[in-house]
Write a structure and sequence with these properties.
318 residues; alpha/beta; Glutaredoxin; Serine Threonine Protein Phosphatase 5, Tetratricopeptide repeat
């Protein structure tokens, strides 16, 4: 399979092919155009107003971040930048309305002609994105990435792993710190039998989101898939060992790994529950730890996980 994700390639700036370009999405405003560019425009599209100053160090960091997030939103939000030193009258008018502009940068979100929310200081990109997402929700919308993620998950649930692969890859390309995109991409590759590429994707996950639950889950699933193939080859051996010695806990745990690889999650759970019942402390609670690894790989909302947790809870707290 060809490489479908290159973390070094950056998405093209500007709007979509049919949507507004960067000149329409991002502009410099002033007190003469404020009503038109901000208040009236926000009745159709949420508007961010970046109040900044040339002498403001944090502004030099925040403004490029704002521009990046707005461009990525592909026309669903706009940005108007206002130099407070050149628009003193506007600043005074807004102050009379209770809008604090004593310090910059201050970013104010307008939705439906009204002030919806604001923040002060140079936030990191992730926090700016969350701020924009909240504004879009107020206006009944969401970022393109959310649409793409939902579409990818729907394809995966329908078993269309090729489509899911393409959608998750596009999302990971557009949002390089989206943990769900990386996890979905790796899982799609696994489902297509491309475990080596799945591992490569997991190796590329940014440090910041490496321990995200979705990433941890698919990492465990990949490891279990590899272990499971080896265990399936010895399925008969494990069954014979248990028939000869029901307290062969190593064989019972290996049998559970093989059963999981065969898609027999319920039986895999029962095998480990029986091992825990017979000797919970064996090999530093190896059976319980293996069961938790199953839960992690399957996902905490999976039916087998929920049933397994109930069985484990009943056993441990009876």
């Amino acid at each position: 399979m060809d490489v479908i994700f290159d973390p070094t390639r950056q998405p093209a700036p500007g709007g979509t092919a049919s949507g507004p370009g960067a000149a329409d999405l991002i502009k410099d405003g002033d007190q003469r155009t404020f009503m038109q560019d901000v208040v009236e425009a926000s009745r159709e599209t949420p508007v961010l107003v970046d109040f900044w100053a040339t002498w403001c160090g944090p502004c030099k960091t925040l403004t490029p971040t704002l521009e990046k997030v707005v461009r990525a939103a592909q026309g669903r939000v706009r940005l108007v930048k206002i130099d407070i030193d050149k628009n003193r009258q506007l600043v005074q008018q807004l102050a009379q309305m209770g809008l604090p502009l004593q310090s910059v940068p201050t970013v104010v979100g307008f939705v439906q002609g009204q002030i919806a929310d604001l923040f002060q200081g140079a936030l990191p990109e992730g926090e700016v994105k969350k701020f924009v997402e909240s504004l879009l929700k107020m206006g009944g919308g969401q970022l393109p990435g959310a649409d793409l993620l939902a579409e990818a998950k729907t394809a995966a649930e329908a078993g269309d792993h090729r489509t899911a692969l393409e959608l998750f890859a596009a999302l990971a390309q557009a949002e390089p710190e989206n943990a769900e995109a990386f996890a979905g991409l790796a899982r799609a590759l696994m489902n297509l039998g491309e475990e080596e590429q799945a591992q490569q994707v997991l190796d590329q996950v940014p440090e910041k989101v490496r321990e995200h639950a979705e990433v941890v889950s698919v990492r465990s699933a990949l490891q279990l898939a590899i272990e499971g193939r080896k265990a399936r080859e010895k399925l008969g051996e494990f069954e014979r060992r248990l028939a000869a010695d029901p307290d062969d806990h190593a064989a019972r745990i290996d049998l559970a790994v093989a059963l999981n690889a065969m898609g027999e999650r319920g039986k895999a759970v029962d095998s480990l529950i029986e091992a825990i019942r017979r000797d919970r402390s064996w090999n530093d609670e190896a059976a319980r730890k293996q069961l938790l690894k199953f839960f992690e790989a399957w996902g905490f909302d999976d039916a087998a996980t929920l049933a397994g947790r109930r069985k484990l809870s009943t056993l441990l707290f009876r």
